[in-house]
Amino acid sequence: MSNPTELRARADELESRVSPVTAGPRTDDERMWLEKAAALRSEADRLDAADRATEK
To answer: Radius of gyration over alpha carbons of the chain, in Å?
Structure first.
């Protein structure tokens, strides 16, 4: 996974594993998946910004 689209797709996949908030407290696994998804989205944003900077 090296491009932003793949990173965001993986983040979506991880987030889909998490139960809705109304289902009760988050498990350790669910918190981990959400943290990893956030990190993947952040990396995708960083790569997008780097691509935009090199295009100018």
So the answer is: 14
